[in-house]
Amino acid sequence: MNVVFLGATKGIGRAVARKLAERGDRIALIGRDVEDLKRSAADLEALGGSVPATIPCDLLDRATIEPALASAWEALGKVDAVVVTAGLFGTQDALEADADMRDRVLTADFTNTVHVCEASAVRLIEAGGGTLCVLSSVSGDRPRKTAYLYGAAKAGLSFYLEGLDLKYRDAGLKTVLIKPGFIKTGMTEGLPVPPFATVPEAIAPAIVRAIDRGTGVAYVPGIWRFVMLAICSLPKFVMRKLNF
Amino acid sequence: MRSVATPVLPVTRNATATSAATRLSGWGRSPVVEGLERIGEDLERLTRDVSLTRGLGRSYGDSSLPAKGGGTIASTRLADRILAFDPETGVLRAEAGLSLFALNRALLDRGWFTPVSPGTQFVTLGGMVASDVHGKNHHEAGTFGRHVSRLLLRAGSGDIVETGPDVERELFDATVGGMGLTGHILEVEVRLKRVNSPWIWSESETAPDFETLAERLVDAGRSWPYTVAWADLLHPSGRGILVKGRWAEPGEAPTTKFTWPGAVAIPFDMPGWAINPLSMRMFNALYLAKHGRRTRTGIAHPQSFFYPLDAILDWNRAYGSRGFTQYQCVIPKESGVAAAAKFARLVRETGGLPCLVVVKDFGPEGPGVLSFPKPGITFAIDLPVTDVTPGLVARLNDVVAAEGGRVYLTKDAFTSREHFRAMEPRLAAFDDVRRRWDPDRKIRSAQSVRLLGDNE
Ligand SMILES: Cc1cc2nc3c(=O)[nH]c(=O)nc-3n(C[C@H](O)[C@H](O)[C@H](O)COP(=O)(O)OP(=O)(O)OC[C@H]3O[C@@H](n4cnc5c(N)ncnc54)[C@H](O)[C@@H]3O)c2cc1C
Ligand SMILES: NC(=O)c1ccc[n+]([C@@H]2O[C@H](COP(=O)([O-])OP(=O)(O)OC[C@H]3O[C@@H](n4cnc5c(N)ncnc54)[C@H](OP(=O)(O)O)[C@@H]3O)[C@@H](O)[C@H]2O)c1
Questions:
Q1: What percent of chain B has pLDDT over 70?
Q2: What pLDDT was estimated at residue B285?
Q3: pLDDT tens for residues B71-82?
Q4: How many domains does chain A have?
């Protein structure tokens, strides 16, 4: 498979890219630090993948998105999937206190991720179809006192991705919306660890399966589907009381 | 209990966050200290202002723990990328947090294995260098450090230095086996070993008493690359099992596709009762009985040959809340098998010990300034921590020091500074290197405070 990958340098993205590499996929890496992308490229190649290009793209700088996709398309020739695992996190307290940080998280996780998706969708559909896989979050399913600012960006993203899937699946664009639960990565380091927490290696196979099958929405690990079903059914007065 | 279909690395579970600080411990879960651990993918940034770097915390005692006033330490767990691999020569360069677990899964099936493997895969390359680990093939291959061609280090001075046997050699030699005290290892370059199949051909036999066991162990080393013995020191004879192995030839290997055993879940919160000391002891006692008298031969999976304990992911919890320690020492070759046998009897007489003790023979000493192995017989003994443990360790250390032996720092939690100094004439050379590269003694650990006299 030929994949354009934004976010393969760390965390969940690193684990997913490794799974793809192990089966020999060709991966064009895009991200904000080309030197670091090259180190990830070496890792993926040692595992059996091939990385024909490492291309600068900063999720906080909209102007870099389209040129990066254009270069990636050129390097790969044909693209089967675009995978976006890049994202930013901020605690509720930090995001309330710091407007600049708020701006960055909302921009990276919603606005500019939407721009990446729009540009990718156009290209994939033009070429006859393909898969667009994006990491949103269970945090976008229901506002909670401790994560509604980050959650709002993810809610917007999930909303957008579901719409994209409704409109363009018949045109050949398979939108795969991934909703991870709590995963132990650099992003969540230091946060209190809730039940069902796991590591990227444990969910990467399920994400790759969702990409291969074109699954519309996938909770990873799967248990979070039921956890969120339960949380979404709680009445508002209960949510007001809960501190999680 | 949850089950996850893919094998994943169990994370040392000590993240009971108390405000900002965390309770940190080594594999023995004793001692436990309060400290700040910083984790991330970018080691160069992570190590700018930390007092120590650790890997997966599989050292037993206090070598990977911060000194009291040591501030923050770095964990390499997420810095785990392969940076280069040459399939012609087997030379691999990687970030220091790459685990043996990941390396084995990436490369064994393609014909490459670590030149030296400890008894668990849940270790990092950085940890393997810092402890200068040995394996069942020490008599033939030496320690891990012998196969390392380059280390990229951040010295205590903050400088980033490329070292190797031919560049900044002093610093390199002190870092190999230096328990993280000479600098933060950022990258490791090592020559892997070519193997003809991923399978092991193994033979094992019982020996009626300790002398016979030790003699056969040394003897077996002449023709087998991998040898190890398990001695039953609760039994008056000190009887045991001798295990020998070599890589299988393609013709001997099973024709089925090689895979690593799957379905290993990450027990973040495995209940403490899953295994307990009683079941562990019974397991040990049955081990010998099950083997029987005859010689067993056959093909073994590398997982069961090299890492029998990895299947029980959280076995360190079996020893209860006070944790345990592993006492590992070497009785020098000059003292002869008789001295080793005498030591074995002492171990038995001190009493209250688990049944099985791992015994190995060591080949020549390597260049690592504080590297543990030297020619002789090594004993590794698991001890539950109780009020008598320090006294017990001191009694064993009296004998080891008198024989000219020494203890393995990566396992140690109870040796006194006096015993350590008596065993370590090499300490002055080590201190010289530290003075030169870390004039302000920024790097230190709970262990270096205890044994090397660093400030808290
Ligand atoms: C079941 C089991 C079996 C074992 N069998 C063997 C065996 O057969 N032979 C053997 O030799 N050992 C054995 N060990 C011990 C183990 O191999 C060592 O303790 C090893 O160093 C652990 O690696 P780690 O990555 O967990 O390091 P840690 O335990 O995290 O750290 C160990 C030491 O290395 C230092 N360190 C780690 N990473 C770095 C870095 N990047 N830069 C600088 N310093 C660093 C730490 O400061 C500390 O001093 C065994 C351990 C277990 C649990
Ligand atoms: N971890 C969780 O518990 C969890 C739960 C639900 C959802 N998620 C979502 O899953 C995704 C991955 O999370 P993670 O835990 O793997 O995070 P992570 O370890 O912090 O990795 C984040 C990745 O995003 C990239 N990135 C960040 N900012 C960027 C920018 N401005 N431009 C380009 N790339 C940028 C990073 O690249 P650099 O190497 O350049 O930093 C890195 O590869 C995120 O969208 C996150 O919101 C995570």
A1: 86
A2: 59
A3: 899 999 999 999
A4: 1
Number of structural domains (chain B) is 1
CA–CA distances in Å: residue B387 to residues B29, B33, B348, B353, B391: 15, 19, 18, 14, 8
The CA distances from residue A130 to A11, A82, A233, B97, B288, in Å, are: 25, 8, 35, 36, 59
Residue B362 host element (H or E): strand B356-362
Q: Is residue B331 part of a domain?
A: yes
Domain encompassing residue B316:
200-251+269-416
Would an 8 Å CB–CB cutoff place A222 in contact with chain B? no
Instruction: Tell me, yes or no, whether B189 lies in a domain.
Output: no
Alpha-carbon distance values, B221 to B39, B158, B201 (Å): 41, 43, 15
Query: CA-CA distance, B211 to B193, in Å (whole number)?
Result: 33
Residue-wise pLDDT tens digits, B399-409: 999 999 999 99
pLDDT at B97 over 80: yes
* Cβ contacts of B77 on chain A, cutoff 8 Å: none
Verdict on whether the full-model pTM lies above 0.90:
yes
Which pLDDT score, from 0 to 100, does residue B268 have? 37
**Which among B11, B54, B98 is the best mutation to test ligand 1's pocket, defined by most ligand atoms within 8 Å of the CB?**
B54
Mutation choice for B interface testing from A193, A207, A208, A227 by most B CBs within 10 A? A193
Structural domain containing residue A14: 2-241
Report the CATH number that the domain containing residue B360 is assigned in CATH.
Answer: 3.40.462
- By the CB < 8 Å criterion, does A186 face chain B? yes
Question: Structure tokens of A30?
Answer: 């895009």
> Does a structural domain hold residue B408?
yes
Q: What is the pLDDT of residue B352?
A: 56
Task: Kindly determine whether residue B41 and residue A201, on different chains, have CB atoms separated by under 8 Å.
Answer: no
**Structural domain includes residue B375:** yes
